[in-house]
Amino acid sequence: MLQALKLAPSYYQKFKADYLTRRDLLVTILKGAGFTCTPPEGTYFVVADYSALKDVDDLTFATW
Question: Is the pTM of this model over 0.70?
Fold first, then answer.
């Protein structure tokens, strides 16, 4: 049986701070490029709306 690895609370605090920094950087870059997005509260993944950039369907936009 595998034993769980116990890490210090400081590890998790740094981990969270690093992900928040990356998330905020990504949101800033997307907004600067013209996308509309809201920083997610519980995940690293950002949903970005491209509709202000081009009036096409999502497949056409992704291909473009």
Answer: yes
